[in-house]
Design a protein that fits this description.
Aspartate Aminotransferase, domain 2; single chain; Aspartate Aminotransferase, domain 1; three-stranded antiparallel beta sheet; globular; about 500 residues
């Protein structure tokens, strides 16, 4: 009778490692396994994290499966040319992340998924994935320590000026430079996230009853703000390139539009990026109609060769928002807003002072430290690397003939096969431990257009993301209807 994979027995055929040699042939031959382990040293970042990252990727790809026995630590250290401490630290981190189990004298094995105890797999919340090759916890700890060496802790625990201090605004100018070029730090406001910034701009630029023009599918936060603040949502016609300039002209002249909202790069939810000529056409309209435009651009830094922001084409009319929540971490609660002129900056600053008074001093200080010492760019590059890996994984698992696939970003706008609707798919997914976001959450009219947003960053481990995507693929293949109440995750 065959023994289960990974069991330790004296029979050489059943034991995956005998005298340091691989004998298992069911999934990985000896030479290819050794080559895979050597591939663990590819990439950047601390070596122990490269090993952990390799284990995670190999689990997600099925190259390492539950029950597979890993090389003894000394053997792996010799194979990779590392000291034993590095491999020991890697195995310890992998155990913390529940990738592996240590079974004493029997060895170390790939963990079996604990599905019955696992929380829901979140494919609904749009946050950046863990940065490849970096220990985010260590970076946060080091950032706080560096802040405390140059700032009195008591000063971080008191009230600060609204809009951020001089160093914080200078940090914002650094972050905005690739998008906008040189920006005067005095026109930058540091905010507690993009949602607070959007609220401040709506209050500063419009009055109750005014129209705010936007596309038919938008970030749900702007819909909620417009409704809560009593602004009219004016939905404009779009084509494959986004908002139509002629539709915007008509709305400004006929529907009392007082502000325009756009998310033109890797748009949430559609992942479309507005081409440069369309951006120039929109800029021309806002100049001609003298209407302010709110350019919400959280994904520009994640995109591959994105066009210049609209703010470059109409700098006197555009308020530009760049949050760190989608490309570094939402826990930093930091967004930078560049105003078109001093008067607009003063009005916006007054609105922000009334809403949140000031950005959180400690997290703002860490963001500023990261900008000035280069950590922010390292995290950004790590996030982009992980995001690319996850997009490729999702494409392998979910690809279908009619599905358009983004080349960058942290989410996919996924077209459902019949007979699924977005709502019934979200219910079926929730019933099986998955969270996705249905299309009606993004629609200005609450329409179900047979599309869902699949977010790829919330699952910390790639193996867990793979598990969730494979489960979603199985649900999609089944088809059908499920009658359960479910709240969309935004």
């Amino acid at each position: 009778m065959d023994c289960c994979r990974g069991c330790a027995h004296t029979n050489q055929q059943q034991n995956p490692y005998i005298d340091g040699k691989v004998t298992r042939t069911k999934s990985i031959q000896e030479d290819s396994l050794l080559a895979l382990w050597r591939d663990a040293m590819d990439g950047q970042g601390p070596r122990y994290l490269r090993i952990v990252g390799f284990i995670e990727r190999a689990m997600a790809d099925g190259k390492l499966r539950p029950g597979d026995r890993l090389p003894p630590q000394r053997q792996l250290a010799a194979l990779l040319g590392l000291d034993l401490t590095t491999v020991t630290r890697a195995y310890a981190e992998a155990r913390t992340r529940q990738f592996i189990d240590a079974r004493g004298a029997y060895g170390t094995f790939i963990s079996s998924p604990k599905v019955e105890l696992a929380p829901i797999v979140d494919l609904g919340m749009n946050i950046p994935p863990p940065p490849a090759g970096l220990d985010l916890g260590e970076l946060i700890k080091r950032g706080v320590e560096q802040v405390l060496t140059r700032v009195d802790a008591n000063l971080l625990m008191t009230y600060h000026a609204s809009g951020g201090g001089k160093a914080d605004r200078a940090a914002g100018a650094l972050w905005l430079a690739p998008m906008l070029g040189k920006v005067d730090p005095s026109r930058i406001t540091v905010c507690s996230g993009a949602q607070a910034a959007l609220a401040g701009l709506i209050i500063a630029l419009t009055q109750p009853g005014d129209g705010v023009a936007m596309e038919s599918l938008v970030y749900p936060g702007i819909l909620s703000l417009a409704q809560q603040l009593g602004r009219r949502i004016v939905t404009l016609e779009c084509d494959e390139h986004g908002m139509l300039p002629d539709a915007l002209t008509r709305a400004c002249r006929e529907q009392d539009v007082r502000a325009v909202y756009l998310n033109p790069t890797l748009q949430n939810p559609t992942t479309h990026t507005m081409p440069e000529q369309r951006r120039r056409d929109i800029a021309r309209v806002v100049r001609e109609c003298n209407v302010p435009l709110i350019e919400d651009d959280p994904y520009w830094r994640l995109a591959n060769r994105p066009p210049p922001p609209i703010a470059q084409c109409a700098p006197e009319h555009v308020h530009y928002i760049a949050t760190l929540s989608k490309c570094l971490s939402p826990g930093l609660r930091t967004a930078y807003v560049a105003a078109p002129n001093e008067r607009s900056h003063a009005r916006f600053l007054a609105a922000m002072g009334a809403i949140v008074l000031m950005p959180a001093p400690l997290t703002t200080a860490v963001s500023t430290q990261w900008m000035h010492d280069g950590t922010a760019m390292r995290v950004l590059e790590g996030v982009k690397t992980t995001a690319q890996i996850r997009l490729k994984l999702a494409e392998r698992v979910l690809a279908q003939r009619e599905q358009a696939w983004p080349d960058a970003g942290i989410h996919v706008w996924y077209t459902l096969p019949e007979p699924w609707t977005a709502k019934t798919l979200a219910r079926a997914a929730r019933a099986e431990g998955l969270a996705v976001t249905a299309s009606d959450a993004f629609s200005t009219h609450g329409e179900d257009i047979r599309t869902i947003r699949v977010s790829l960053g919330a699952a910390r481990e790639q193996a867990r993301l793979a598990q969730g995507l494979q489960k979603l693929a199985g649900i999609l293949a089944r088809g059908g209807q499920v009658e359960m109440s479910v709240q969309p995750i935004i």
